[in-house]
Amino acid sequence: MIVFGSIVLLIYLLAIGILIFGYQKVPEFKFNPEVKKTPNTPFSIVIPFRNEAKNLSVLLNSIQNLNYPKNLYEIIFVNDESMDDSVAIILRDLKHSEVNYKIIDNIRKSASPKKDAISEAIKVSQYDWILTTDADCKLPENWLLVFNEYIQKNDPLMIVGPVQYFEKKGLINQYQKLDNYSLQTTTIGAFGLHSPLLCNGANLAYKKEEFQLVSGFSKNNHIASGDDIFLLEKFKKRNPNRIQFIKSKDAIVVTQPQDSWKGIINQRIRWASKTTKQDDFITKMLGIIVFIANMFLIFALILFLYNSNYIVFFIGFLMIKINIDYLLLLQTSMFFKTKINIPYFLINTLIYPIITVIVVLKSLKGNYIWKGRNYN
Prior knowledge:
This protein is of the alpha/beta class and 376 residues long. It has helices at residues 2-25, 56-64, 86-93, 113-124, 143-154, 171-192, 208-213, 229-238, 261-275, 281-306, 311-336, 342-365; strands spanning 43-49, 73-79, 101-105, 129-132, 137-138, 158-160, 163-165, 204-207, 243-245, 253-255, 368-370, 373-375. The protein contains 12 helices and 12 strands. The strands form 3 sheets. A 7-stranded mixed sheet has the order 3-2-1-4-8-6-9. Strands 5-10-7 form a 3-stranded mixed sheet. A two-stranded antiparallel sheet has the order 11-12.
């Protein structure tokens, strides 16, 4: 058992080490807002929403503060059967603004409401560049400026942007913060290895023409989630070298964390539900490696509690994993200019394996609740 555990840990160390190496190979995109340049990229910003009354004001305020010519972007809000005051809030907050926006209703055609919403928005969009985000987000002031400059310099077809959680106190929020660090480092690290694996629809841009050439979300719109990942895979098959990550602090979109452990588990099940449907072998293998390493940590703890002779093995496994995980999280925390709270990090070292195992086991069943809807 010790030999097997050592092999698991070695493979885990190798995988995380490779991701950290890849992360460091992605250069930070230097953007200076003080250097005045004339923007020339028009954007259609797509924002699906469902019952987001409590979050919309933050988003709408950030939209009005966007530092970009008003004639070079439009906002397309897609109402996905909201039952609260979401529409009224948008109309109220943008009533006297110069923002070019429209609100359309989602037309359900598949098992994925969000994919339907984005598809409907793209149909009525005016511009060639589609930028997607979520209704519970806050957009950075120079968001469009930095995307514009990146497009002019690099000629991409898809741009994956960084996403961060709002900084909040408490174990549940710190758990999500650290979990997001690992996802962001993995995302950027994979780009550094020239093998994009992940992206987040809260900060994603792509050419409308390319979206149409890959037939949008067809062949995967029977899966409720994955409006970002499946599209990434399609773009990757056609033009892998023109999918890029914009590693810029001016491009960081901030989003709201879940407010309960139940919400976290449902969200992770939603994410996990698309993993088995992905074509990318590396993504699946990485998920398996992370799962086995975390499951083995729980097993090592149980083994130690059953037989104290295994204390050295358990502590050794735990300490090595803690150190490599810390190095992984440190990459993105420095980029986001935030600190890792060590006590919360140590607590989450034990919580994360438990949540991971629960999510994997529940995702095999396939049922979860999201935005007030039951998915199977």
